[in-house]
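Side project, low priority. Logging it here so it doesn't get lost.
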Amino acid sequence: MDFNLRLNFQRIIYQGGREVSKHYIVKKIGDISEERSICGFRKRLITEKDFKEASFTFLSVYEATKHYHKKSTEFYYVLKGKGILELDKEEIKLEPGTLVMINPGTKHRAIGKVEALIIGIPPFDPTDTYEN
């Protein structure tokens, strides 16, 4: 799939209580390396180093393992494909345009051929992932 995702964030840097510079972050999904995660294959678009309040990850679901987070709330926004999101003992149908908010402590995993944008608040932290 030829998929370009552009994220523009204005970042303001303060020094001694005054604004010293502004700039934008632009990332193209094709330029970001893919890594294996508990959910599938991900590309970490915006990390805590870029933006202290949230992280943005492109996820291709593949053999996901049920897990949960103690601190992070995750938002799954489905871009492509169909599948199921298991949330504790419930199942939610996934299709393009579906948004699901997953609160901390909720055991979850996605099943199917799904591509999604995952937003984590606070930003994704690998030490905040726990398996069943």
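Brief comment: The chain has one domain: 33-131.
Revisit when time allows.
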